[in-house]
TrEMBL record:
Its main location: membrane. The chain crosses the membrane at residues 6-32, 52-78, 90-109, 121-139, 145-166, 178-201, 213-239. Belongs to the cytochrome ubiquinol oxidase subunit 2 family. It is found in: Cell membrane. It comes from Promicromonospora vindobonensis. InterPro entries: Cyt-d_oxidase_su2 (IPR003317). Its EC number is 1.10.3.-. It is an enzyme of class 1 (oxidoreductase). It is a multi-pass membrane protein. One of its GO terms (molecular function) is oxidoreductase activity. This is Cytochrome d ubiquinol oxidase subunit II. Keywords: Cell membrane, Membrane, Oxidoreductase, Transmembrane, Transmembrane helix.
Length: 251
């Protein structure tokens, strides 16, 4: 595999993470409130929040597997691009990682102790961290474009689109809508990733590892990719089923 092939693989891995985790981010951002048909907002009850998290829960860990794989490719195979992104976007990267950790903590800790105050505190953390995670991710894409204005615009776009994607996945899982809205938001949420890869392509492929090193790592990719694809298939099989009581046990 040459540098161009690795760059394509990186794009696919990042798009896979955005597709899966974007639904979790969007559901987390709207966890406390739901929009009524008349356009007004109402506060969700605790039981409803568990249902929302249960709807997107199967996407969390498979999505993070794609993110870890993408980081491994960026750092291990395309170190020049990774170092440049970290150097220019260091504060955004720290914000991204911090909000990612807090978002996951909110998901896993909210129901670990009884008491409404404990749960409500972690729900607020989950909402704020989900919004910041989406915004910082969009800003990182803007950093890859090499523009502060692009970072601001893509940060806002990411927050909006993840909310739409999360709502679409939850509504589909609850059988309130069909699959078409999910397909539309999936295209919307992955389009910035593809556009950024095209924009940053020359800087992405230069400075890669030697041909011998990338060939050796290609063997590793051949082993790892089927596992990731299996996780992807498992995640979508889980969310394609009607939501049951077991899906909310951990949330």
């Amino acid at each position: 595999m040459n540098a161009a092939a690795w760059a394509v693989l990186l794009t696919v891995l990042v798009a896979g993470w955005v597709l899966l985790d974007g639904a979790v981010q969007g559901a987390g951002a709207t966890l406390l409130q739901e929009r009524n048909h008349d356009g007004s907002d109402r506060r969700r009850e605790p039981a409803e929040r568990r249902v929302v998290l249960g709807a997107v829960g199967p996407l969390l860990l498979p999505g993070e597997a794609w993110l870890v794989a993408a980081v491994a490719v960026l750092v291990g195979v395309l170190p020049h691009a990774g170092a440049e992104l970290l150097d220019v976007g260091y504060p955004v990267t720290i914000t991204f990682v911090g909000s990612w950790v807090l978002r996951d903590a909110g998901i896993w800790l909210r129901s670990r102790r009884p008491g409404r105050v404990w749960r409500d505190v972690w729900d607020v953390v989950l909402v704020v961290a989900s919004i910041v995670l989406a915004g910082s991710w969009g800003a990182l894409l803007g950093v890859a474009w090499g523009s502060g204005l692009a970072a601001l615009i893509l940060g806002i776009v990411a927050v909006v689109v993840t909310r739409l994607h999360g709502d679409a996945v939850v509504a589909w899982r609850l059988r309130r809508t069909g699959l078409l809205p999910v397909i539309v938001t999936s295209v919307m949420i992955t389009a910035p990733v593809v556009g950024t890869a095209v924009s940053a392509w020359p800087r992405l492929v230069e400075g890669g590892l030697s041909a011998e090193a990338t060939a050796s790592l290609g063997i590793v990719a051949i082993v790892v990719l089927p596992v990731l694809l299996a996780l992807q298939g498992l995640a979508w099989w889980l969310v394609s089923r009607p939501l049951g009581s077991r899906d909310t046990l951990f949330f």
